[in-house]
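Regression test case RT-17, inverse folding.

Input:
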């Protein structure tokens, strides 16, 4: 099978990874809770993603919970040497599918061990601290106790590298005073542009930026202008939105998620799409217009 990921690489932890990765969240059931509706399809998506050149998979043991990590293990273990699996800790799921902070030292330790067990590894490649001050956007608060706990687990050899999710620039600076930060994972896409300055700052110091909801999340991006540009380029609107992210900054790593083989192939093909300066200006204008409207 041909390797379609050709959008270049960026260093994540100790190795370069293809900038087009894969996010496993959508492999769980509705609301990221419970088993997948089609287990065989979920396993097939994971296998094809790696076969097509994906070497960066994003997951968490609170997806399901435990569902996506166990699927990854079933589909891909023993893992290829080049594969980087990035997980998150800091949240838990209730029996009603609710999301709750799980930020105490004991909860973070338990989450790391859950990830180790369900992924079937002795050390996690990268662990992001998911900051839960506000579930929907970064808020200023100290993360010193939580990040210090993860740094101690790193010193014990249970974690390779550390990152942050839902973080502000101040929190990045605070975390870097405790241990190296290799990535920041925040909400960002063509029309959600609050992190523009943060992306540029991280690029200047060699830290990867990984946008979650790169296609709008549970409310997919919709724009007449985006659709018109996509038609001109003989691409889908989602492919154009992903290509814009790749062109936005060299430190952006993408993790679009899907439980469909067809959508997986479409997403990966976005890595081959070239956008000239005029198209980038048009796409930038969509983001500016949307931001002004809100």
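Golden output:
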């Amino acid at each position: 099978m041909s390797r379609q990921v050709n959008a270049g690489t960026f260093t994540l932890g100790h190795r370069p990874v293809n900038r087009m990765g894969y996010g496993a969240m959508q492999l769980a059931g509705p609301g990221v809770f419970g088993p997948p509706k089609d287990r065989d399809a979920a396993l097939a998506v994971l296998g094809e993603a790696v076969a097509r050149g994906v070497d960066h998979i994003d997951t968490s043991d609170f997806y399901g919970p435990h569902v996506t990590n166990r699927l990854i293990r079933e589909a891909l273990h023993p893992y290829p040497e080049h594969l980087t699996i990035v997980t998150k800790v800091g949240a838990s799921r209730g029996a009603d599918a609710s999301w709750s902070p799980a930020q105490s030292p004991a909860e973070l330790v338990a989450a790391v061990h859950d990830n180790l067990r369900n992924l079937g590894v002795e050390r996690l490649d990268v662990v992001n601290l998911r900051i839960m001050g506000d579930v929907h956007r970064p808020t200023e608060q100290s993360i010193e106790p939580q990040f210090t706990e993860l740094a101690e687990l790193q010193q014990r050899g249970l974690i390779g590298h550390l990152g942050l999710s839902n973080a502000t620039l101040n929190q990045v600076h605070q975390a870097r005073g405790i241990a190296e930060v290799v990535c920041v994972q925040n909400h960002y896409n063509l029309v959600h542009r609050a992190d523009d300055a943060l992306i540029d700052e991280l690029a200047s110091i060699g830290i990867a930026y990984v946008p979650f909801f790169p296609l709008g999340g549970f409310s997919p991006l919709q724009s007449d202008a985006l659709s018109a540009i996509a038609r001109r380029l003989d691409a889908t609107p989602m492919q154009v939105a992903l290509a814009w992210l790749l062109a936005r900054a060299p430190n952006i790593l993408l993790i679009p998620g899907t439980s469909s083989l067809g959508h997986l192939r479409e997403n990966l093909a976005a890595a081959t799409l070239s956008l000239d300066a005029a198209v980038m200006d048009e796409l930038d204008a969509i983001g500016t217009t949307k931001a002004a409207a809100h």
